[in-house]
Amino acid sequence: MRITDCVYSSTSVDLIMIGDNKASYTDQTVKIKKNYSYNEFEVTYTDRPTSIVHTITGLSHSSLMEYVYLLLKSLYMDEEGCKNVQVNIPGMPCMVVSANKLSDLYYREHFEDLIRTGVDLLANTTSSTSKQNRHQFFD
After folding, report:
1. Is 134 contained in some domain?
2. What average pLDDT score do residues 45-54 get?
3. Is the Cβ–Cβ distance between 45 and 53 less than 8 Å?
4. pTM summary value
5. How far is CA 112 from CA 25, 64, 68, 129, 139, in A?
6. Closest CA to 33 of 118, 131, 96, 108
């Protein structure tokens, strides 16, 4: 039986697939959060053009990274895909590249490494019950 009042990280790893640089309603997003209650990860995929939202729960670190690998591979294979891809990692500047750069293995591996680093930060984060809802990262 799953608890409905789970505690999640207040920070996340975000991947934004930008469909049109002038119209954010064409973007698709993937948000990765840590579920403290079960010590697992949750992915929320949002397709803004269709308003479809999918939530994948109960992911282990390895299952999550397999999802990320397939997502990045699919982005470069998609013939009608997005124009740019942006990754937001806690504590790092965001990175935006043209989606066609993901056809280069170097770029895909770099994005995967960035996301893995962000996920590792989330995995090593503990919840704080303070009023500021602070989180602490461990080495």
Report:
1. no
2. 89
3. yes
4. 0.82
5. 25, 11, 7, 31, 20
6. 118
